[in-house]
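Support case: pyridoxal-5'-phosphate complex. Customer-provided input:
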Amino acid sequence: MNKDLREAARDHLVRYGQGDIEKLYVSAKGATVTDDEGREILDFTSGQMCATLGHSHPAIVKAIKSGAEDSIHLFSGMIPEAVAKLAKKLGQWLPKPLSRSMFVNTGSESNEAALRMAKMVTGGYEVIAMGGSWHGVTGQAAAMSFASERHGYGPKVHGVSAIPEPYSYRCPIGHCRDKCDMSCMKVGLKMFDMTSEGAPAAIIAEPILSAGGVIIPPDGYFKKLKDEASRRGMMLIFDEAQTAFGRIGEKFAATGLGVTPDIMTVSKTLGGGLPLAATITSDEVEEKAHAKGYSYYTSHVSDPLPALAGLAVLETVEKENLLERAKEMGAYLRKNLDSLQQKYEAIGEIRGQGLLMGIDLVKDRESREPHLELGDITTKRCMEMGLSMNIKRRPERGAVWRIAPPLTVSKDELDKGTEILDQALRESLDELAGNGAG
Ligand SMILES: Cc1ncc(COP(=O)(O)O)c(C=O)c1O
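Agent response - structure generated as follows:
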């Protein structure tokens, strides 16, 4: 452990919400992260949900090495061969009529670009997003995010409305319990229609509301949302930052749902850990946008090096059959979690798809009051015991662990993580009941 470096981090870094800097991390491989004391930590969050192939997968390392030799960055108007290759490969994956991509860096950016496109093509500016959404922290993306912190940053982009999220475990309109009848959508759209300034542009949605608590909308929800969008002359945008490229056992959530949006954004899971995102649409929409002078000219649009990493991700998902693996390992993890639920009243609901799971913690199963404290102390205890877990905690939407290990995780690793979680939960509950050593 290098004390100087720890001190340097404490003295010279801006804290962006991650809490106190207690230690540093030095390497990551597969599903394991190693800290500056040489301790190994099992990673149940795939980094920030980006290392779906596992950390430093050999295919990504190889792509980065060869990309660095060829060209790292070019003038934004020059299209590198690597970008053409990735666009072609991605085009083969996409549900029709989606076929064209623009490669940018982050999820926030891909959503900014999507909204610029929807606004330009429709001529409107009004956007509907879902309660509990997270689309990023840049201007427009932050305006359409309702799970992130909104206080203290000044006025948001005008024209964004929220519709209540279809969260039947804790229905935001107090209407359903366990089975959503989509009244939330009806109410939300009614409010939008009442308050609209007559310039509709887009509805944006995460197919699974991840940061909002791993909320899975009911069957038929997105088909209806698409119909409602087109009735209003709005484009439907799917933000597939977390759901694309295998995480949920599908190429895209859109493929599984059988609903193709007008614009799709992908990010986190595309770059194998490198910043790479894309704004994707059909020939028809792209043609209209281009004809109207659409531009999104940034320093790193179409950079060659991350494009090669993206290509390696798609090829590896195919070669290692990771869509199937996500389903298989997801089912295995689910069985483990179900057995924990049988032991602990505090596990109110487990939901998810593939290797994207949510555990909703409650004080008791009848009231479903969120157990925020239990979430906090257990997450901390897991980390001390060598398991990295991500808790999403909002009083209105509960304390929900989002579990998303790499798709390459082994059964042994899933068992080990479950054992740590089991022990951490038991000890935390004891501590809260005043029985434990704490
Ligand atoms: C669904 C979704 N969209 C967009 C973003 C923003 O992506 P980024 O942090 O890469 O800007 C996130 C980040 O968590 C996300 O979960």
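The radius of gyration is 22 Å.

Case will auto-close in a few days if no follow-up is received.
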